Amino acid sequence: MGKEGYKLNINSNEVNITAASENGLFYGIQTLLQMIPTNQSDYKTFEIPSVEIIDKPAFSWRGIMLDVSRHYQPKEYIKQFIDILAFHKINTFHWHLTDGIGWRIEIDQYPLLTEKGAFRKVKENKNPWQEFELAASKTSPDTYGGFYTKDDIKEIIEYASSRYITIIPEIEMPGHSEAATFCYPQYICKGAKPGSGIYCAGNDETFIFLQNILDEVIELFPSQYIHIGGDEVGKEQWANCPKCGERKKKEKLADEHELQSYFIKRMEKYISSKGKKLIGWDEILEGGLAENATVMSWTGQEGGIKAANSGHDVIMSPIDYCYLDHYQGYNNNEPQGWGGYNGLKRVYTFNPIPEAVMPENRKYILGGQANLWTENISKTEHLEYMLMPRLAALSEAVWNNEKDWNRFKNNLDVQFDRYNKMGYNYSNSSNTPMIKSCNIDSINQSLSIELYTELDLYPIYYTLDGSEPTMSSNLYDGSINITNTSDLKAAAFRKNKQVGYILELPNLLNKATLGTVSYITSFNEKYSGGGATALIDNKFAIKRGDDKNWQGFEKENAEFIIDLGQEQEIHEFNANFFQHIGSTSVMLPSKVSIYTSLNGNEYTLVKDDCIAYNPFPDAFIENINLTFDKHKARFVKVIAVNTQTLPSDHPRKGANAWVFIDEVSIN
Fold first, then answer.
1. Each residue's pLDDT tens digit, 127-170
2. pLDDT tens digit string along 608-620?
């Protein structure tokens, strides 16, 4: 059964859990807890089924990473977080304690790391990493931060240990270290700007500084592993640094990639000398991998495959399956996420062992891990929302080699009740209705829509008049046929309560739906939105730059003509535009102008509207609604003016600006 396996026997007389170690007994108890009915008013008496379960995990590393650098979480909540992990049989807590904008661990020899490096200045309409600046005072209203004392960390380690969870600390190097290098600028390259965030690889004092830090970290944490990051290192300043140049020459290093490898190998030897093992993100493969290093493969599975096939231990954590800061639903009401889409089912299908790993090398795959970065996550409610129920999917993916989606999703029906009872703010995104298909019948002038939810467990009810759906509304039975302009709203219901968000699709089958679009300026092929019908196909893009329904125009105005097919009386134009300053180059247009024509040759301006610049950094959709006097027209020309270049307060100032548009309606 191994260290973590157990046998659970329940009959009419007793509950018996047998295991080779306390770890196994603990997991047997977690299984028993999951069998207790959730509909109890009290737990003085209850019934559980007679059963025999023989169970053990497929992988020894079942991990979750929590980033507390971007947004700090207090000690007491870290304990609650550990309880959540233990309940899901996670045995490794990877604690991301340092990064560019926050140092969260007390280091006696370098007190400025927490006295200054743990506190940043909050700036209006700026994400934390934009124009990052250490706070002048810990107590000023515009200060954000916090850190863990050594006593805090000892207490948390003991708490985790009692739940059979190992904590792996991460101390970032050689990059992602702005806070640290603002506090101790003597460890950056000559000529680099203050707080550049990259340690000088040519300065021996840099290594002494980091070794002294690691000495204190190693003394605190009993874990076998120390994570040093090693990812996303900008190497330009190394290329221009005299000391780094001397280092390359002395060590016969071909380039900055090999210099990074030198840096990691040197730190790996030091960590090994302390009886510990180094873990780094898969960029530590660049320039050659340190002899005893373990690779955590995040950029994909390729790095992990390469490392395992060369005989190195690997933890699989690929971004496409394991990043829980990514969105988990297609709905504009989803809270701000980062990156792309990692739905519940995708997480569940995660397999830590890719086929490309040779059979004899699969022993080097220690397991898998999900990562929860907190660029956009400051509140514990949001953190739990992003974590659950995807944590349940990840837990099963790294515990059990035999997956059964239908069994898992049906078990989630009970798990939701358990989450409710435990007071967790879990996500119901998997129950939010989404569009499966949307087909226009131009002959019968109708629209047929099919809906689905990811779990497909609960009934969907809908309305076509824009009112909120209830269980007295229309019951969805496989398709919705629309013959008049309608505002569709749909929601799923579980135990007489709405679950998930409402799907909202306004102006379906409007006057533009049966028309055709011709372009005066061409859209960018990378962001086609689906081609020439994208703007009038009744498929609505959501507030993510990677949504395939957005149609993009780089540095050029979005100019197009909609042919309504015949003269019609019109008085209103509607379109959605996207902006996300924090992560993209997509800006709202500065002006939208509407022209109409009867013959397609002579156009008259009927309305234009200047759009004020909005510096809000997060993603949002702006619905531009323009009304004008009723009149007959067949052709509608639209010009959405591109700002062409990004403004001076944009993170990518001076670069080409984009306009993203989707779903034009005319009434």
1. 888 889 999 888 888 999 999 999 999 999 999 999 999 999 99
2. 999 999 999 999 9
Stretch (H or E) spanning 33: helix 22-33
The CATH code of the domain at 61-427 is 3.20.20.80
CATH of segment(s) 430-508? 2.60.40
Please answer whether residues 86 and 166 qualify as being in contact, where contact means their C-beta atoms are separated by less than 8 angstroms.
Answer: no
The full set of domain ranges for the chain reads: 6-55, 61-427, 430-508, 516-666
Sign of the CA dihedral 97, 102, 106, 111? positive
Q: What is the mean pLDDT of residues 421-435?
A: 96
Return the residue matching tokens 């993203």: 660
Q: How many CA atoms lie within 13 A of 374 on its CB side?
A: 27
Q: Which residues are catalytic?
A: 99, 176, 232
**Start-to-end Cα distance in the chain:** 68
Residues 6+ apart with CB under 8 A from 124: none
Q: Is 304 helix (H, G, I), strand (E, B) or coil?
A: helix
CATH architecture for segment(s) 516-666: Sandwich (2.60)
Q: Is the pLDDT of residue 42 over 80?
A: no
Does residue 48 contact residue 10 with C-beta atoms inside 8 Å?
yes
- Given a contact cutoff of 8 angstroms between Cβ atoms, the answer to whether 226 and 171 are in contact is yes
The amino acid present at 61, given as its one-letter code, is W
What 3-state class would DSSP assign to 348?
helix
> What pTM was computed for the model?
0.94
Helix 256-273 crosses helix 204-220 at what angle (to 10 degrees)? Answer: 40
Q: Between β-strands 604-610 and 591-597, what pairing exists: parallel, antiparallel or unpaired?
A: antiparallel
Strands (E) across 76-189 are located at 92-96, 98-99, 102-103, 119-121, 143-145, 166-173
